Amino acid sequence: MKAVRFDEYGDVDVLKVVDMPTPAPRPGQVLVQVKAAGINPGEAKIRAGMLHARWPATFPSGQGSDLAGVVAEAGPGVTGFTAGDEVIGYTDNRASQAEYVVVEEQNLTPKPAGVSWEVAGALFVAGATAYAAVRAVALTEGDTLVVSGAAGGVGALAVQLARRAGATVIGLASPANHEWLAGHGVIPVAYGDGVAGRIRQAAGKVDAFIDTFGAGYVELALELGVEPSRIDTIVRFDAVAGHGVKAEGSAAGASAGTLAELAGLIADGQLEVPIAAMFPLSQVQDAYRRLASGHIRGKIVLIV
Questions:
Q1: Is the separation of the CB atoms in 92 and 277 below 8 Å?
Q2: Is the model's pLDDT at 92 over the cut of 90?
């Protein structure tokens, strides 16, 4: 089978697609023929060595958590899936960007017929992160939430889930994404100089803040008077100790149950996962270059 590998930390140029033996499922595992696998900013940071202290790589390293595909073989003791089943799932072994991947049975859920392969394959990291972030800020009916990076992979899902929770949502994004946000019931606000004033103009009081971008947005949330316990950042891990905010992301939301719930909403037309671009597995370098270029609405997906 073909799989993405890198042998050292570096830029996208260290990524290569190599021939590997197809893995065999062990007890409790399922071999999945991958149809689509999303790519995520965290993977690029791991590959560059930026997260070595927190999540070191072991070389040669594979890449990828998100996946959707067809069950090729169920390992001993697996009762929930059989060959031919269409599934959505995830792996914690940095291995989904490949033609085949072994997945723990409990990390899979059936793919609804109404969910496309590219959306299914892009769902786990962004979906679990958005789900956990919205839960972390404890929204109730009538709250006002601000989301930075509101049209990105995580932000685009977080704003929709927050609206479903009954919150008024202000989405910080570039003007090119304002129409999309407004179409999903979100108040779009341009980021940059003077953003605090623009947020106050859009909503008198801000109750919660989800930061998907980093930079100074945790400090902005505090400036706006948001309690630290209702600020969640998926980027600024230093702010947890520094300001007492939360940093709940994909690990906090990781479960097949979360995937099943989100996939059900997508199938029912109640949640949209925007797909910014699709690349074949052989063009994995180009996919990550596109990700690094920024200003992406939604997700980039590898089609296997």
A1: no
A2: yes
Report residue 273 as tokens. 């996962």
d(CA 66, CA 86) in angstroms, rounded, equals 14
Q: Residue 280: CA atoms inside 13 Å, Cβ hemisphere, count?
A: 3
pLDDT the model gives residue 201: 96
Nearest Cα residue to 244 out of 260, 267, 226, 259: 226
Using a 10 angstrom Cβ sphere, with 0-12 exposed, 13-18 middle and 19 or more buried, the burial of residue 191 is: buried
The model's pTM:
0.96
What is the Cα–Cα distance from 76 to 274, expressed in whole angstroms? 37
User: Does the pLDDT value for residue 251 go beyond 90?
Assistant: no
Closest CA to 123 of 39, 34, 30, 42: 39
The span from the first CA to the last CA of the chain, in angstroms, equals 11
Distance CA 29, CA 32 (A): 10
Cβ-contact 79, 54 below 8 angstroms: no
Cα–Cα distance for residue pair 90/110, rounded to 1 Å: 12
pLDDT single digits (tens) 34-45: 999 999 999 999
Find the largest Cα–Cα distance for the chain.
60
The pLDDT-based confidence of 95 (bands split at 50, 70, 90) is very high
Q: Is 140 exposed, middle or buried (0-12, 13-18, 19+ CB in 10 A)?
A: exposed
Instruction: Give residue-wise pLDDT tens across range 166-201.
Output: 999 999 999 999 999 999 999 999 999 999 999 999
